[in-house]
Amino acid sequence: MGSERTLDATDARILLVLAADPRATVVALAEQLGLSRNTVQARVARMEQSGALASSERRIAPAALGHPLTAFVTAQVDQHLLAGVSQALADIDEVVEVFGLSGETDLLVRVVATDAENLYRIAGRILAVPGIERTTTALAMRELVSHRLTPLLRRAAKGGERRSGR
Questions:
Q1: Distance separating alpha carbons of residues 142 and 154, to the nearest angstrom
Q2: Is-contact 69 119, C-beta < 8 A?
Q3: How far apart are CA 136 and CA 118, in angstroms?
Q4: Closest by Cα among 68, 120, 77 to 98
Q5: Which of left, alpha, beta for 59 (phi over 0: left; psi -120 to 50: alpha)?
Q6: Are 92 and 122 in contact (CB under 8 A)?
Q7: CB-based contact 95:89 (threshold 8 Å)
Q8: Which class for 122: exposed (0-12), middle (13-18), buried (19 or more C-beta within 10 A)?
Q9: Euclidean distance between CA atoms 37 and 143, whole angstroms
Q10: Fewest beta carbons less than 10 Å away: which of 9, 62, 90, 114?
Q11: 103 Rama sector, left if φ>0, alpha if ψ -120 to 50, beta otherwise
């Protein structure tokens, strides 16, 4: 979703209910929120189309697919080759996210692996991508704060301020 569109309080209320019950039907959402079915359906469709309501893939645990290790690979990249680097990383199945960064490191690559040997192989594949100049790999020991947006949704549902912090 681009920065040109923000969600209003009603959108945030819909997303809060969906966060608590991702399988809720449009009818159930409408009843719970006191909105018409058409209103909810139109808003959900708009949020899906705009990218505000993303894929539910994030809820799938990589460990359930036999990939219990998570690592973060930082990479320095020849900027002239960034498009090709991005495509090559997308072609590696174990690469689950890639972020472009500001600062000394260009990319943050989240990978999942079956074991240490598999992680070593994946890190080697990443380093071999034309345009990647240097990498550093860090194994995630445990997740301390899971991906979450509920606190921001609660604030938005109340029509709260949009600044960071409290």
A1: 27
A2: yes
A3: 16
A4: 77
A5: alpha
A6: yes
A7: yes
A8: buried
A9: 38
A10: 90
A11: left
How far apart are alpha carbons 164 and 137 in whole angstroms? 30
Look at the block and give the residue holding tokens 């969600």: 7
Two structure tokens written together for 164: 């960071």
The total number of residues written for the chain in this structure: 166
- The residue type of 127 is L
Structure tokens at 102: 């500001």
- pLDDT per residue rounded down to tens, the chain (166 residues): 344 558 899 999 999 999 899 889 999 999 999 999 999 999 999 999 998 888 777 778 999 999 999 999 999 999 999 999 999 999 999 999 999 999 999 999 999 999 999 999 999 999 999 999 999 999 999 999 988 899 999 999 998 655 555 5
